[in-house]
User: What shape does this take?
Amino acid sequence: MEPAELRRIARTISTVENQADGTDEVLAQAYRLPRWADVIGVTGPPGAGKSTLVDALTAHWAANGERIAVLAIDPSSPYSGGAVLGDRIRRTRSVGYANTYFRSLSSRGHVGGLSETATDLVAVLSLFEFRRVIIETVGAGQSDVEIHDTADCTLVLTVPGLGDGVQASKAGLMEIGDVFAINKADLPGADDAMRTIENALGAAYMGNPGISPRPNIPNPVSSSYAVSPGLAALRRRHGNFGEDDETWVPPVLKLVSTDNDGVPELAQTIDTFIEWSDRTGRRRQRSRERAYAQVMRALSALLLAPYARAPGAVQIPSAVDSWVERIAGGEASPLEAARALMNKLPR
Assistant: This one.
């Protein structure tokens, strides 16, 4: 890419990220694209090697001539509000490709492992004709799983030796992965980590890893019984082995990203999932769910705008201040305040 184009991309991203003048016009154009870039989310615990793997995947796809963008989400500084930008240090293999673009973003205190504008920025990058967008999340724990709402394929990365850390992750990361990978697989314990994840997945899936045809079950259990919200979400994303002709069973791969060992196979697995998701209509459904979440976010921001305190400001808006004083003085509840303020909104 030419320097002038890189500057255009950077300026447009900054405009949208900061909600500056021109944001509405850019997003109106970007959201009208018939198809966005393929979005690959990379998440996992701190120290799993996410930045190194993202660099390796970017170089792999860029070498094939694809136009790749990377959004690396860093924790925000409590002092400046900016990102630490540590991801750039590990960008060694992909930096030499002119068809790549890298941007570090601050989470700006937003919980969930993403920047609040991540989905908007995917739309912007699609407008600049990127074929893929890789999003590297903040080092994730059980609650940092928002990447699933934005990515077309979510890769959960872990490493040997976490022990009970993998078990603790089941309530979060285990439920969002489309593909799982054990990085640093040359270290002791890689096989144990792989078995741990495969056993956890075995509780929710039936069939072989990858695209799996419907098993021939002589007396299948009816799928009409009540299931947990988590299992229902897995079925929407990966299919129901009792009803669908084929389902997706998340594979677990081993790799050593520093040596590029296993990276091409991982890239192919990601492509296989995205193609399957396209063919079965599940990507379209995920796009609808993403659009719903975006509408709710925008609606919430517009409704709260008259009452929201400006970033960094100490003074509470006057419309809210009297209620804050009453609540702090034990004279009212937050719910009473919210209802009263909602009733004052124009209809």
Summary: The beta strands are 38-43, 68-74, 100-106, 132-136, 153-158, 179-182, 210-213, 246-249, 252-254.
